[in-house]
Please model this.
Amino acid sequence: MLEKCRESPDGDVYRLVGSVTHESATLLRGELEELAITPIQRLVLDLSLLDFIDTGGLGVLVGVRRKFQDVGKEFVIVNPSEKVLIVLRMTRLAALFGVDPA
Amino acid sequence: MSVSGDSGFFLRSAQAEVLVCDDSPTDAAIVRSLLVKQGCKVTIARSGAEALAKLAERSFDLLLLDYEMEGLSGVEVARKLRHGGTSRPYMPVILLTARTAQSDRLEGLQAGATDFITKPFDPLELTARIENHLHTKRLHDRLLATNAELNAERAKVRLVQLALLPQEMPRIKGLSFSAAYLPSSIASGDYYDVIERADGRVVIAIADVSGHGIPSAMHMSVLRSSLRSMVEEDVDAVEIMARLNRVLRHALDSFSFVTFYLAELDTHTLILGQLAAGHHNPLLHDLASNAVEELPVEGTLPLGLDENFQIATTKATLKAGQRLILYTDGVTDEQNIDGEFFSLEGLTAAIRETAGMGLDAAKDHIVLRMTSHSEGIGNQDDATLLIMQVGP
Model:
């Protein structure tokens, strides 16, 4: 589930809560793609409350990131929960998203 | 009866078959002539029992039932049809009645009637209502036919996909293989393969296309044919990965990628050269010590994402008495009803229980542990397990 947290000059912060699986990935994709065509220049997605994401869900994040880039905007993910960080590292997508603090 | 002309799917020539059940020959004759004018084929039953007998013989598109009849009433016929126990295709049941009380109508609806027509009826209303119900009936039949057609197609997709997996593992001295392939739906985005190179080296591969179902299965088949032809042309493993990345960048949309693990085993030195693109590390089970550990692979991004794809080989040396276990995340991500994952710990524990088992029995045991974890839910993601045993 996608929640809006706050607007800031550094970008609007949204939070992803719960889990992203095959069923919810399509919905999430639609919501994030809509944000790509709003005036938002930088979207920050907080993953601290995300418990689970499967490869389909990761595909959405990768695709939305590309979509933002294509229109000259920025899409970043921050604070992945421990479980999500494991998946991001396993798939080596942590490097792509630049989330690895280590 | 007018047949809608906009869709070629409706059987234009098919005449709607209506069963009219009325113990009054006069009423039955009036209804019949109205419906015949509408283009319907009409069969008359003089009693509820006769109607039930005719319905047992064959199907009709619509049943028009008189409410008050000698013997079985219209409501009793409707009830018997509903609780008859045999599964029959949807058929609208319309009660013809002089009763207008709410309670009588409710009784009819509860018995399974679809609609009422009040006697004395207006001929135009009767034919209009019947036409509406026949339309619904045709839509219903069309839905069933389309469903059956889709299911047949899906079953074919499954067969085609299963034929793309190794039908028989290559016979290689000192090695044995066992695999389980568990699609979450009709087709899977997972792929595994074992291919022997001309020089005797063995290529072992496992992959997971993000997403599920038929689109993922089509990408899986692209992956398989590309890999197989490159191995046949003796393309180097690093180059194979780079070319697969290019092929998939074109084939996949920007929301999809493929995690891929490819390893090449030199059967003389038992040196395993591993390349992982977004795929998690394999596990190594040492049968003598019963230790299970991850084989760390340097790895890079999944295939299909990055133009500037670079990958390195991570080497490991295997020993006789070891099993290399490759899997897709559908195995560890298997959830039970409480949302708990089978997890890497669960998989490791299951593997440790198989030290004394033959290879196929070990594979079956791990699959059983995994499927019984999610008992009653079934696997939510495509899951694949491939085990290679070194030595006897």
Notes: Residues 197 and 231 of chain B are 7 Å apart (CA to CA). The longest strand of chain B covers residues 175-182. The two ends of chain B are 75 Å apart (CA to CA). The interface with chain A takes residues 208, 210-212, 253-257, 259, 277-281, 299-302, 305-306, 329, 333, 341, 380-381 of chain B (CB under 8 Å).
